[in-house]
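User: Fold this; tokens only.

Assistant: Input:
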Amino acid sequence: MVVSSLTTTDRKNIGHLCPITSFGFFLIAVPTGVTFLVQHWLDAEGHKGDRR
């Protein structure tokens, strides 16, 4: 079923896959963004008294 869904050319199935794919990328992007934000906060706290 997965292989047939991913290799389909039927426009209705492709229409169903678009929101699923978008949500999948959203689920990947949110934790990645939060990780980068936390790393930035931790790095900024370590350099509060450091004037370069």
